[in-house]
Design brief:
Chain lengths: 347, 347
């Protein structure tokens, strides 16, 4: 799927400063040069760089009407609610954007092209609705071929959803390219796809074919590829999404893994009563699940420290290094060099 | 999905005596009273009870034409190829059956209702095509509610696909009912659904919603249910299907587990280079994946000994009991009493 958009307005009402704005935040950080405005009336007028870690100075406005002054060509839905429905209060905003001639980019499970009202409006206005979470249908079952890949295929696993797996993978990809490596970023979720202009919305794929979709993409990279940074999905500890995670582990059969975690989180977010195991046990569980498939090691930890101070972040990093013996850093805050230094050893 | 069929012909060409005929075999064994004939030209004329363990004396014929003499009302596709396509050589047989006024029952991933040629023929002939693998769409994500169920929810896990999980679960369900328990059988695959007239084709569900579909069904059983026997899917060791398996584990959060295995198999079937771990390790892996969700134990082993003699079977059972310390039996060959004796302790 190729997204032909250049002047993006992101709809992030009420969620620019919270977790569910992760699509907005990811696009702002890694594709901010194409964003002309962000809609979030709760943050309007503020300097975006005080809210989101991005180098791009993008105006925050309180309505679509205001955003139109910046001559956008598209409206990108920047939140990711559980279940992936479009909240009813934003239906009108999306319809208005269509009437104004904007293309729509959505990563929701609820496919806007399948909604008769949106489909009719899109046809009338002559615009495109990009449902990036619509996978191409293909009943291919993984055969286990990815275990023979020469490249260092690095899978970003996590303690939970929304803890920074896509971000850590993309930061590592940027650092590897900076060092001159032939590197690929394999996007497996809607935000990654919006940034990379390609990939597979894995959590939308039919159960039996999830691993196969990953294997297919991996087998198509050039043989001289040195790194593939694979965006992780969910967590093997997550009561709702763990199936997607294990399919990704077995479809990719990674050479190495980086464990991603949000500092301070102790249990599955938005659920009750599902605490994390000790981190050495989390690591052992992942390694054991790959042991008889392709022996693979967790070789580093990407810690998301966005909610704590720099001093606290350094303390947390130190704590994780002592507990696990693995190089640990926050690749957004401190750069991905430490992780690439380690990953280079597995080329 | 309610299947309104009473006089079934099973299409099992070339596969009655092999693993890929598992749909045919399951229906013959547990719903044989509704089967009027089986098509398999390689076995035609033989006594079916010398090939399949069933109490029903069903004629084996070599063509649809012969089968029509038994006045069937439906043709059931009895094989389950990898990827779930309809092999091209059987397209004509299915079309002929439609023209003769037979309903079609298919558990293939390839949905016959979506095939223009079949759909048109069905309409013209006024017959039904039951695609039992078409799930009802519903974007529900599991919330982890199943961990609070009072019933003994028993999940049948396995070392591999097609090793007897559905069969073991159904045999246990029959034994529990015989003992007077309020028991449910939760079918999660096409054969189970064909036998039980309901359930969810889990491997066909979109990744994010697999666990949720299981949770939804479990939460609807009457509160005084004593046993739920949950048909397992795939294996956490399987390179292609493991995601479905873990989703089922987390969606059902079972109170207990029964490990299913085909005696003599040492690695993933039809794959190369994916050996099974030692059985104590397989057990520990499953228990660890549930440890922080709902502590659950593997409490027995269902050994599929169909390919070996009775003397060898008893030896294998003894070996597994010694290696794992768990009660082991082949529920088809020796009955499920031993397993229910154990499972009663967890009511």
């Amino acid at each position: 799927m190729q997204l032909n958009i250049k002047r993006i307005v992101i709809l992030a009402e009420g969620c620019l400063a919270i977790l569910h704005g992760k699509t907005a935040i990811g696009v702002l950080r890694y594709r901010g040069q194409d964003v002309v405005a962000v809609i979030d009336s709760t943050q309007a007028g503020k300097d975006i760089r005080t809210i989101v870690q991005t180098q791009y100075q993008v105006p925050i406005v309180s309505s679509l009407e205001e955003a139109l002054k910046f001559q956008p060509d598209s409206l990108l839905i920047g939140f990711a609610p559980i279940g992936g429905f479009l909240p009813e209060e934003y239906r009108q905003t999306v319809l208005e954007a269509i009437h104004k001639g904007l293309d729509i980019v959505s990563g929701l499970h609820y496919l806007l092209n399948d909604d008769p009202e949106f489909a009719a409006a899109a046809k009338q206005a002559g615009i495109m609705i990009y449902d990036v979470r619509r996978p191409e249908p293909d009943n291919y079952v993984a055969r286990g071929f990815a275990k023979n890949l020469k490249a260092n295929t690095v899978l970003f696993i996590g303690s939970d959803c929304a803890c920074g797996k896509m971000t850590a993978a993309f930061e590592c990809h940027l650092e590897a390219k900076k060092r001159g490596y032939k590197s690929e970023f394999l996007a497996t979720g809607q935000t990654g796809i919006m940034i990379a202009n390609g990939g597979i919305p894995l959590d939308r794929v039919i159960g039996d074919f999830m691993a196969g979709e990953i294997e297919k993409i991996l087998m198509k990279y050039p043989v001289d590829t040195q790194f593939v940074f694979i965006e992780g999905q969910g967590s093997i500890l997550h009561p709702g999404y763990s199936g997607v995670t294990l399919a990704l582990m077995h479809g990719s059969m990674p050479k190495t893994m980086i464990l991603c975690h949000e500092a301070g989180r102790n249990e599955i977010d938005e659920y009750q009563g599902f605490p994390f195991p000790p981190f050495p046990e989390i690591i052992q569980m992942h390694e054991q699940l790959l042991k008889y498939v392709r022996p693979s090691k967790v070789v580093g930890i990407a810690l998301n420290t966005k909610w704590i101070s720099e001093a606290e972040a350094l303390k947390e990093i130190d704590k994780f290094e002592k507990e696990t013996g693995l190089p640990t850093t926050d690749p957004v805050r401190f750069g991905a060099a430490k992780l690439i230094d380690t990953l280079e050893k597995y080329l």
